[in-house]
Amino acid sequence: MSYFDAASAAPLHPVARQALSASLDEGWADPARLHREGRRARLLLDAAREAAAEAVGCRPDELVFTPSGTHAVHAGVAGALAGRRRAGRHLIVSAVEHSSVLHAAETHEADGGSVTRVAVDRSGAVDPSAYAAALREDTALACLQSANHEVGTEQPVAAVAENCRAAGVPLLVDAAQSLGWGRVAGDWSLLAASAHKWGGPPGVGLLVVRKGVRFAPQGPSDDRESGRAPGFENLPAIVAAVASLRAVRAEAAEEAARLRELTDRIRARVPAVVPDVEVVGDPVRRLPGIVTFSCLYVDGETLLHELDRAGFSVSSGSSCTSSTLIPSHVLKAMGVLSEGNVRVSLPPGTPAEDVERFLRVLPDAVAAVRERLGAPAAARTAPESGTDLVVDATGRRCPIPVIELAKVIGDVPVGGTVRVLSDDEAARLDIPAWCEMRGQEYVGEEPADRGTAYVVRRVS
Amino acid sequence: MSYFDAASAAPLHPVARQALSASLDEGWADPARLHREGRRARLLLDAAREAAAEAVGCRPDELVFTPSGTHAVHAGVAGALAGRRRAGRHLIVSAVEHSSVLHAAETHEADGGSVTRVAVDRSGAVDPSAYAAALREDTALACLQSANHEVGTEQPVAAVAENCRAAGVPLLVDAAQSLGWGRVAGDWSLLAASAHKWGGPPGVGLLVVRKGVRFAPQGPSDDRESGRAPGFENLPAIVAAVASLRAVRAEAAEEAARLRELTDRIRARVPAVVPDVEVVGDPVRRLPGIVTFSCLYVDGETLLHELDRAGFSVSSGSSCTSSTLIPSHVLKAMGVLSEGNVRVSLPPGTPAEDVERFLRVLPDAVAAVRERLGAPAAARTAPESGTDLVVDATGRRCPIPVIELAKVIGDVPVGGTVRVLSDDEAARLDIPAWCEMRGQEYVGEEPADRGTAYVVRRVS
User: Fold this and answer.
1) Which of A263, B134, B286, B304 sits a CA distance of 20 to 30 A from B255?
2) How many CA atoms lie within 13 A of A139 on its CB side?
3) Confidence class of residue B387 from pLDDT cuts 50, 70 and 90?
4) Among the four given CATH numbers 3.90.1150.10, 2.170.270.10, 3.60.15.10, 3.40.50.300, the one describing domain B252-373
5) Per-residue pLDDT reduced to its tens digit, B302-337
6) How many other C-beta atoms are found inside a 10 Å radius of the C-beta of residue A57?
7) Contact yes or no for B231 and A30 at CB 8 A
8) Reaction catalysed by this chain (chains A, B) (predicted)?
9) Closest CA of chain B from A70, distance in Å
């Protein structure tokens, strides 16, 4: 079995496991107590904080441990917004942030604040000038991830931080995906991260608030973690998390080069071995271990199960794999195909043979799903003439609307149109993406009796 | 070394340790994912939820796991208040709740809500009729602990729950100290608990919201834990926590009887072997493992260090052991002496010999502290006549003001008064408590040039 979903959660690093075991013996007591068990716990906590601060590149008193990366983001956004309340209530985020950031932004909006979501290009990156343009007099905080969790694209954090600094606006960086690989460059103000992404145990996040940043923790608080993260410290997990961070950092340069070569193989060879595939995300400025592609005419959930049976655990941003039936907001913001989406995220230590085997298995897995769904085999020659067509795919889920479109496009004369009726939200993303991939013209959408009509003009 | 601070944190139960180790292998993946590691994690999470629900006595879908007991309380109070916003914004708590409940109440007040803090008697218990009297038309929620964390007194939860139910007000029970011993009786609506109190690892709390209770989670949320506890589930710790709960429950009846006998020994023998001691908390309706007493003329921090040197780890609610210099709000609400306070909380499995050794060591430890502080040895006979006295103890910390009072009381004629000037907040609690213990009359306090004058009349 090959586990290729490190971006969701990585198995516990052996060093973390040792540290966890040792600190369950030494660090279970309350570090706020005066007795020897408490003092011992306090020493362990202080040492963990110093080591974590060294890895992040901050002062120990700027760093607190939280119960998760999500808690770090929620506490960081709320505290920074409240601390800058006098400046205003405007928040800037990118459109491709982790859901924890977007949920915090939604809560802020529901509470009367305003939010600007900065768009990304087709590679998933923001433009620093777009962040600069979003800055307003009343901007209290800007948030930007160091790298994207679904497609691996690195963001221009240093340039955005410089723009924010010039405007006197703090920048919160969600470094969840990158902190195991190295420090976040640039003059950021707040940083959040999550230990189980770098081989630490679950239950530990980091929140860093630079000295001088106005910060007012929200909600009930206590004396622990500088009043920024209430509740009994999860000390054994904290110690293990920091041990793991140091261990993965020690191997980071070498392992990054190795994984980058492996993901380069996938990026290059998937389009060669699987027809009708779009590899997404920046090919160069990206995390070493993540590669994401989407397969036309494929249902993401079925493909995941097919790959699972073949021994590969991957993830997907397709709508058919989520409980909400909404395709990944990241793929949507990038304007790329979401159907048949596969994210491969390699854990450190992944053997090259596993990647080779994945590349051997993938074509058959995709073909099997396509065959089952009755996907079209190849494009036909355009007929000399014919009328405009309507395809009714209402009541049918992704990727059926696109499959139906592909089936009839051959019957449409060049210059003619086909109207695809669909009530699946994914069609709004996947039909334009299909047009882009196929060189056909996406005309636009119109309301229909049931769902929406997506109009496509045959160009070639 | 004997660890007698189980009420702060208990060492990891051996069963929890095994479960943690196994679930680090099996349960590190994201339970929201479709691949086999994710499905395996989901199965473990579902099984843990069922077992926890069985132990609590609720439905599995009423129970979510939180990162700590504190998070469970904060989320429970905020969600229940918001869910009942239409009823009003009045919150009832007891004066002796855990700080997490009191902090949540303070946040509610700062946000414009109103709070009634129900007083307790000298044993630390609330009167159900006082809770009933506090209920108002606009009461949204009432909170009551199952048992007190500092003195072990059990609260009349079932009777209070009945009153609340009759008024249509939900009752949230903080069961942190008692859940390891058994289910909470009565028709409560919400329940919070903390795994590291029952020998589980830190990083796990429980929040139970009964079906039919109006509940609106506050702050940013996500799909996890029914939208009531955002962030990646700490699954290995959850599995370990539930394994520990089942294990301690299996031994609970027998171990409760054994620890109760041991704490009864302490309750009975401490006043016999140490002069000027007040044992606090209900002698009968109490947790099996907790006993708390206060020693006149003793500085809590010094006594803790003295006992630590003698091999005993205990806790204290004295102001001199906290960073805030405010004596325990529990002792204050009970109106008992706070100086020289010692909480002994025995972990399951404590050998009787350890308790016997503690009883042998304690008298010398207390005597050593008293000698160092120059505490009075014995009361003198009252002089025939004399003027009213003033003792200036300003600038001096607990227990010096009481020691100075005790030194001069012999110089005051019966019927005469002594005014103790003090600027230490603990004096407000400890001087009346001393009068109660010594059979002298506490007249009251008056503002003074520096600090406050506490007036005591010699009666005998």
Assistant:
1) B304
2) 25
3) low
4) 3.90.1150.10
5) 999 999 999 999 998 876 666 666 788 999 999 998
6) 13
7) no
8) (sulfur carrier)-H + L-cysteine = (sulfur carrier)-SH + L-alanine
9) 5
